[in-house]
Design brief:
13-stranded mixed β-sheet; Elongation Factor Tu (Ef-tu), domain 3; alpha+beta; Phage tail protein beta-alpha-beta fold; globular
Length: 345
C-alpha cells in the first residue's frame, strides 16, 4: 500500500507505505465502501521515528489530501500519539466540502431534473454530473436547513436513485469531481460465496423491529396520501384513506387475529409535494415490508464491489440467497477482507 499526501495547494508533501523502506509505515488500514452513504472512507495508523516526526506531522495535517489508487481523500481527523510515535488518520473521499456546506429552507415550486438538483446543491463545490440514469423532473421542498450531503441524499431518495462520487486524477492533481446517479449501482457477475471456501465466520442479523405492512405518510402542513391514487399490484392506496398498504406483506406478516391485520408504521417526509410524498412512501414501504436480514463474513479475497449482487450459500444453515453487497472493507497491510450483505426479497 502506497499513499501520497498533498497539501491544500495540491503540492505533494509526503509518501507513506506498508512495505517500502525509508517511508513512514502504514498499518491497520481499512478502506470501506458503503452504498448507503455513497461514500468511501479510509482509516489507518502511521508509525514514525524521531528523524521524520516533523515531516509526518506536516503531511498528516487535518484538511490535507491523500491519493490512493486513483482515489482522492480528505484527511478529516488526525490524532498524534507521541508516546507510541504513531498517527491515527481518518479520511473521506472528498466529501468534506459537501458536509460543511449548509442550505436554508427551500420551497420555490420549481420542477427540476435530477441533474439540475444535483448541480443546485453540489455545483458550487466544483462537482459535475457524471452518469445520470433518470430523466424525470420533480418539484422538491425542504422545510428545514440542511447540509449539502443531506440535501443530495434527500434528492436521491425522491428520484429513487443511488449516488456515487468519483474523482479524476492527473499526475497527482485533482482534474475533476463527479456525482453520478444510478437506478441501482453494481453488477451481477455470477459470484457465489460458499461457506468454508470463499468465506468464513458468517454472522447473521435478523429483525422485524422495523417491519410495517402499511404506512401512514405525512408531509408538511398535514399533507397525506388520502387524495393519491396508486396501485402497482402490490402496494396500493384506498380512496379517502391516509394509509398506504402492501398486499404481499399483509398476507404474510399481517396480524393473525382482529379486524385490522395491517401493521401500520409512520413515515414523515420533508415536502409539500403530494407526488414526492407518495413516491418516497412507496419506496419506504418496499423496504419495510420485509424483515431485515444482514449477513457479514470474512472473505478469502474481494471479488466484487459494493452494490453488486452475489449468491451466498451455507448448507449448514440452509442459506441459498441472492444478496446485495452493501459494504466492503479491505485491509492491505493485514490482508483482510470483509463484507456486509443485505437479502433483498
Amino acid at each position: 500500500m502506497i499513499l501520497y499526501f498533498l497539501d491544500r495547494k495540491m503540492n505533494t508533501v509526503g509518501v507513506a507505505s506498508s512495505s517500502l523502506p525509508k517511508t513512514p509505515q502504514i498499518y491497520d488500514d481499512v478502506l470501506r465502501d458503503d452504498i448507503e452513504t455513497a461514500s468511501k472512507t479510509l482509516k489507518f495508523s502511521l508509525a514514525y521515528t524521531d528523524a521524520n516526526a516533523g515531516d509526518v506531522a506536516e503531511m498528516s495535517a487535518e484538511g490535507n489530501f491523500i491519493v490512493y489508487q486513483n482515489r482522492f481523500f480528505t484527511i478529516i481527523d488526525s490524532d498524534i500519539d507521541t508516546d507510541s510515535m504513531s498517527v491515527e488518520i481518518y479520511c473521506e473521499d472528498g466529501g468534506l466540502d459537501l458536509l460543511n456546506d449548509s442550505f436554508p429552507p427551500m420551497e420555490d415550486g420549481v420542477s427540476r431534473t435530477l441533474s439540475q438538483w444535483l448541480l443546485y446543491f453540489a455545483g458550487g463545490s466544483g462537482f459535475e454530473v457524471g452518469t445520470c440514469e433518470s430523466s424525470a423532473s420533480l418539484a422538491l421542498s425542504f422545510s428545514d436547513s440542511g447540509t449539502a450531503t443531506e440535501r443530495l441524499q434527500a434528492v436521491a431518495e425522491a428520484f429513487d436513485v443511488e449516488l456515487d462520487f468519483s474523482f479524476l486524477m492527473s499526475d497527482f492533481a485533482l482534474a475533476g469531481k463527479y456525482i453520478s446517479a444510478y437506478e441501482r449501482k453494481g453488477l451481477n457477475q455470477g459470484v457465489i460465496l460458499r461457506d468454508g471456501i470463499e468465506y468464513s465466520n458468517l454472522r447473521i442479523k435478523r429483525s422485524v423491529a422495523n417491519l410495517a405492512t402499511a404506512l401512514r405518510p405525512e408531509g408538511n402542513d398535514g399533507l397525506d396520501v388520502s387524495e393519491s391514487v396508486y396501485d402497482d399490484g402490490d402496494i396500493y392506496t384506498v380512496n379517502g384513506s391516509d394509509v398506504l398498504y402492501c398486499r404481499s406483506a399483509i398476507g404474510k406478516y399481517g396480524r393473525p387475529g382482529g379486524t385490522n391485520k395491517a401493521i401500520t408504521g409512520s413515515f414523515k417526509v420533508d415536502t409539500s409535494s403530494r407526488g414526492q410524498l407518495l413516491a418516497e412512501s412507496v419506496e419506504e414501504l418496499k423496504r419495510r415490508s420485509i424483515p431485515t436480514v444482514i449477513y457479514e463474513c470474512d472473505l478469502v479475497q474481494m471479488p466484487f464491489s459494493a452494490g453488486d449482487y452475489i449468491r451466498i450459500v451455507s448448507e449448514k444453515y440452509n442459506i441459498y440467497d441472492t444478496v446485495r453487497v452493501i459494504s466492503t472493507e479491505v485491509s492491505e497491510s493485514n490482508n483482510e477482507f470483509k463484507a456486509e450483505f443485505s437479502r433483498e426479497v
